[in-house]
From TrEMBL:
Organism: Bizionia arctica
Highest taxon of source: Bacteria
InterPro entries, sorted: HATPase_C_sf, HATPase_dom, His_kinase_dom, HisK_dim/P_dom, HisK_dim/P_sf, Sig_transdc_His_kin-like_C
Keyword annotations: Kinase, Membrane, Phosphoprotein, Transferase, Transmembrane, Transmembrane helix
Enzyme Commission number: 2.7.13.3
Entry's transmembrane regions: 254-277
Protein name: histidine kinase
Domain Histidine kinase: 292-513
Length: 513
């Protein structure tokens, strides 16, 4: 699944990257097409103006100085049919010398070549030729070659010389370029801001839009005002400040949808994987819990059975002192099992929000002193000591007296249990008012715990791995209960610990005035 997911992401990235490249190429193609169109339109407009000016001069009756006439004929007899094809192309060249004052370029006169051209194809049937046997085919072709009145002025040296001498700012305007580019780009839905300029041999001219900046790698250009050899000193340039944004916007929806759907797959997959790992971990924890619970219930059950067997012994049943002793043992073991069952039930009720926790104003110092009375016999039994250093300030908090006393008792009980048998349990309890909160610290000198255990010590059923040893009784429920009760009181609990150097549990609660 992981490999498939990675593969999907790479495939999507590949197609998105390809789409982006295609959009870039399409954008470049459309821009160059618009530039070529603009360049051609400006050249055609200039030539049309030039031709009209020349035609005006010719219409004034200027006579040609010289003429050159050329006729080209092609005659072919079509095999298999009684037909002849005659193709004719006639060209008449006339040279004029005209005054150039109209062009305002400082010359007295210019030479213009006017070309008259006519083309025609005729098909002659054999019977037509036979009926006119006296017709000279060559004469007929000559008559056939008379020119029509078509006229055309070619790009010639005169036009090139004239246009070359005219400054670029007199040949084209910024408005003309802007309108042509906008019109052509708009046809391809390119509606973003652009900047343009005309450069002459890599030097800027007066024809350029405001804030034009030549950026070699992102500026498009085409030649403008080319001669017959397709050469030009001028180039029309354009760049788009928001080009990347425009190109990316065309695939942004596809990219976003791809990211969204891929994210959903990743989240679903990660969630499923986490649930799988969590369920496996819970399964392991439950197995450990059952093993620990079985071990802890086995001992009191065995003790109770032995006590009952002893009481049934005729030699014991009449000994009142021994019977009472065995009964006390049965009661203590039964009480111990009941306490474990209550822990499980309390955690279950907390998770289902069924545990009724009513709160009232109480002094935290009073709860601490009450909790100490529950464990002081256990401490004394191991020759230990509890040192207290309680705040002299007001320690009033909003709390449930029973449950919060249980919280402190649970922490103290852990401090006693996890102190090695070879040491006497020494516990330090301190409270300190800090701003609007009160800090309770319970420090022991027990075995401590590693970093991994500190992160998970408040998890339900969690106990630090000790192999097959069961020297410390418990099910990993006490601190889970403590954490939930503290958080229900808008408090926070944390632990600081070092292996073989003891642990310090820190509880922070909000004070009430």
């Amino acid at each position: 699944m992981s490999l498939s997911l990675v593969g999907i992401i790479f495939v999507q990235a590949y197609y998105i990257n390809n789409s982006l490249k295609n959009e870039e190429e399409q954008f470049t193609f459309n821009v160059k097409k618009a530039l070529s169109y603009t360049s051609k339109s400006i050249e055609d407009r200039e030539f049309k103006e030039y031709a009209l000016k020349i035609q005006d001069l010719l219409d004034q009756g200027v006579k040609p100085d010289t003429t050159a006439f050329r006729d080209f004929y092609l005659k072919e007899e079509v095999k298999g049919s009684n037909e002849r094809l005659i193709y004719r192309n006639s060209i008449l060249e006339e040279n004029y010398k005209l005054s150039s004052s109209i062009f305002d370029i400082g010359l007295d006169s210019i030479n213009i070549k006017k070309v008259l051209s006519d083309r025609e194809t005729k098909i002659l049937k054999g019977n037509a030729l036979e009926s006119n046997s006296n017709l000279n085919l060559d004469a007929m072709m000559f008559e056939f070659g008379k020119l029509s009145k078509g006229a055309e002025i070619f790009y010639d040296t005169a036009y090139e010389d004239l246009s070359y001498r005219v400054p670029i700012h007199k040949r084209v305007t910024k408005d003309e370029i802007d309108k042509l580019l906008q019109s052509k780009l708009g046809e391809d839905n390119i509606d973003i801001d652009f900047q343009f300029a005309i450069y002459s041999s890599d030097l800027a001219t007066k024809i350029q839009s405001e804030d034009f900046e030549l950026i070699t790698e992102s500026t498009f250009s085409v030649p403008i005002f080319q001669n017959k050899n397709n050469e030009s000193n001028y180039r029309l340039l354009v760049n788009f400040p928001k080009r990347n944004t425009f190109v990316q916007s065309s695939i942004i929806k596809m990219t976003l949808l791809s990211i969204i759907f891929t994210s959903i797959i990743i989240i679903a997959y990660t969630s499923a994987l986490m649930q799988l790992l969590k369920q496996r971990k819970i399964s392991e924890i439950k197995t450990d819990f059952i093993n620990n619970m079985t071990h802890e219930f086995k001992t009191p059950i065995a003790t109770i059975n032995l006590a009952l067997d002893a009481i049934r012994n005729p030699s014991v049943i009449d000994d009142k002192e021994k019977v009472l002793r065995y009964l006390r043992m049965i009661k203590e073991e039964n009480k111990r099992m009941h306490a474990q069952v209550e822990n499980v039930l309390r955690i279950s009720k907390l998770e289902r929000n069924e545990l009724n926790i009513s709160k009232e104003r109480v002094a935290l110092n009073d709860l601490i002193e009450d909790a100490i009375t529950h464990v002081e016999l256990l401490v004394e039994d191991r020759n230990g000591k509890i040192n207290i250093n309680l705040s002299k300030d007001d320690t009033s908090v909003l709390a449930n007296e029973t449950h919060f006393t249980n919280v402190i008792v649970n922490v103290l009980d852990n401090a006693i249990k996890y102190t090695p048998e070879s040491r006497a349990p020494i516990i330090d309890i301190t409270t300190e008012n800090v701003g609007t909160n009160i800090i309770l610290k319970i420090k022991d000198q027990g075995g401590g715990m590693g970093k991994a255990a500190q992160k998970r010590v408040f998890e339900k059923f969690y106990r630090e791995h000790t192999g097959d040893r069961h020297d410390v009784k418990g099910h990993g429920l006490g601190l889970a209960y403590v954490k939930q009760i503290v958080e229900d009181h808008q408090g926070h609990i944390s632990v600081e610990s070092e292996k073989d150097k003891g642990s310090t549990f820190i509880i922070k609660l909000p004070l009430i005035s």
